Every structure is written in structure tokens, then in C-alpha cells.
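As described in the Methods, two query proteins were run sequentially through the folding procedure within a single session, without resetting any intermediate state between them. The first query and its resulting C-alpha cells are shown here.
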Amino acid sequence: MSKLSRRKMLATLAVTPLAAGVVARTVGAENPLVTSLPSLFGDEDKSREKTRKHYFPNFELTTHEGKKVRFYDDLIKDKIVVLNFMYVKCEGICPAITMNLKRVQNLLGNRVGRDIFMYSITLKPDEDTPSQLKHYVHMHHLKPGWTFLTGKPDEIGVLRRKLGFYTSNVEQDKDLTNHIGMVRYGNETRQWWAMCPGRANPPWIVESILWMDGPNGKEIKSADHGATKPDNSGHNHGKLRTKG
């Protein structure tokens, strides 16, 4: 889709709930048709609190390094984040997405762990202990700033649904090997959220993530891509189911 046509599409978008995977991104301050969640719900602080209560339960999780953290307080609040779900013994889509996000991490450079944070949450917390997740990180030679997480199975299930990583077909949704291969990214402070396929072109994913920083987004240069920067155009993604 061309930049022009994506801008036209953006101008007609209305913001929908987080689980739908849609974000309205500001093309320009002068554009009255482009909005974000605070302007829809009124007071920004009240809107942010409603979003937190509905979508970001403050469950305790454990990182691949064995550290106890709170999902909202420690991982999401005031941050630009990139999230996906996976599990260690997945023989389907997970390894491909991990390698694709590794390229994303490399393109983002030292911003990862500084002002952009990457999280992968296991779908099988009964199997994936912190030590197993740490081995997974080392096996794939992943850099700091990308945290793998486990927790209580029922709470992981709640997080998965709250964040939109599910299908409306209940029977299919029970089969965790048939999980969706999507990536959620957003800016909690601005309440801008979107989703994209986990196997999308890494520079395109980087462009989308950088857009979440608004006018502060800076282009990033890499050996295999040249310059990557926000193009002030909108991305609107639905759900994708992939066998994993």
C-alpha cells in the first residue's frame, strides 16, 4: 500500500479497543480527523486509568533471569513496548518470529532496553521455567533489553486475551499450538496501540514501532537497510492465525 493511500486510510479510521489491534496515529497536529484514546474518552488521566484496568492486569511475572516483576508497574507503564507470545518447544511459527524480532532488535540498536522494551511471554508457563527461557535467550544469541517472561498459567491466559492474542473460535483457541503469530506494540503513555504479523518485514516493523514515539522517533541506520524512520502513515492490522 502506498504512503498516500495509507494516509487516506488513516484519516478515516476511528480508534477501537486495544484487543482489536488498531491504532490511530497522528499525521499532523492540524488534522482533526486523527485522534487517540484520550480525546475519545475525555480526561487523559482517566482514560489511561480505564485502559490500564481493562487491558493491563498487574500480575506478577518472572523474567528469564529469575526477577519478579509486575506486568503493568514494571513492564508497561510509561514505556514503548513490543510484545508477543511464544513457548520454548514450539516447532512451528515461534522460531521464525524470534529470528525476525532478533533482526528488529538489531535494527533498533541501543534503544532496546533504554526507551523501547521487548517482551516475549510464554504460552506454556508450566513447562517454560525461567532457566529454560534463559537457555532459549542464549541459544538465539539475543541481546539485553528483550525480556522473556513466565508466570501463573491462569494469569498468563488472562493476559493473552486482554492483549488480543486469541481467536473467537473457543475450541481452536484452546489449542495453544495453534496460536496467532502477531506482535503487539504501543506507547502506554500516549495510549497508542497496534498489532502486526510477527513475520512481517523487520524494517517495516521497526518503522511502526518508531512511529509510537511520535515526533521524537529517530531514523535508525543499519548495514542491511540504510535508514529506517517513521513515514507518518498508518498501519491497521487484524488477526492472523498460524499453526505453531
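Immediately afterward, the second query was submitted; its sequence and C-alpha cells are:
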Amino acid sequence: MRLIAFGCSNTYGDGLSDVNRESSVHIRTNPSKFAWPQLLTNKFKIDIECLNKGYGGASNDEIFDFIINFNFQKDDIVIILWSYISRISILNADGGYINIRTWDAPRTHNKSKTYYKYFYQETEGIRKLCIYANYIQYYLQDKVKILKQSYLQQYDNVNFPNWNNVNFFDNFLDATSNDKGLDGLHPGPKSHEMFADNLYLDLKNEIAKKFNR
């Protein structure tokens, strides 16, 4: 049995004590054992392998691609923490991405400034999140045992389109909380623990029923 988590740095565990904050996200190999995926796995007193597929800086475009290209198994438990809707990744012909970000990324700074000034719309970000989440719910319905989805709440009072059928799991895992990691940017250990606790309470009965445990 595997618990597989997809997301960005808030899933990977940036800012926690066992993640090298000086290293590039592209060369890290081990996500934090103090991040919510491993904490959640530890709460189940059964043999579950934790696969933390969080990736620092990932957009929902990238997370979607990670998921649909992953080799799932029938007994998998899949948790998706979608990233901030303001992050954009545009696919190149060679399979790479042009990343549009709100932070000052040197290679794309001018493109990003132009995009957010003239083109970015919160409504479009919400619509795309729902397209991805609804598609993944349909795509995985016969491929895995359990699927839970949540998203990083960048805005208050998000208005989802009326065709959305995904019941997103509430979370408070956000860098704006008082509990910050060592980098001062990402959620700290208490936030990860709280998220894992809430997920555990939501999942334990479902796991017991579906796995006869």
C-alpha cells in the first residue's frame, strides 16, 4: 500500500529542518520527513509506503502533468495539494516549461511582469484549477483506492464554477500563518502536523472500510 502526495514546496517540506535551504529545488533528492505526507503516513499503524512527489515552485500545470504521467496501483491512496492558482507554466514544443511566477525569477522576470500586469485573472486561475481537479477525479476513479484533493488558499471566498464536482478538503497549510519554517517563507512544523492530523481524521474510517483494516 502506498500513500502518494502531489504538490509544490508546501508538500515537499521546504523550510523544515531536514531540507537543505541552500540547494536548488532541481537537485534535491529527499523530501522532508517532517512534511505532512510522511507525518500522515506515520499516523496509520499499518504498513504504508510514503511517496512524496512535491516539487518546489510547481504550478498546477506541472502538478497535473506529474499526476497523469505517474504509474498508479490499485491500492494507492492519493493526496493532492494543488498549488497557488497564480502560478502559470506554459508547455514548450520540447516538453519544457515557460514559468510565469509572481516572485522575481531572473530568467522570466520581464515576461512575468507583463503577464500579471495585462493578462492574469483570478477567475481564470480558479477555472483551470477546477478543470484539472475534476479531470483527475475522473481519471483516477478506477485506478486508485482513495483520492483526496485540496488547494493552497491564496484568496478568501473563492467562487467555484457551478459545474465543479470536486469536494476539496479544507486546509490551513499556508505560509501566511504564524507558524513559519526556517526560511521564513514556508509553513512550519506545527502547520504540517495540523494538516496531517486533519487528513488523518478524515481518512482513517475510509481506509479501515476500503482495506478491511
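The mean pLDDT is 86. We note this only descriptively and draw no conclusion about the first query from it.
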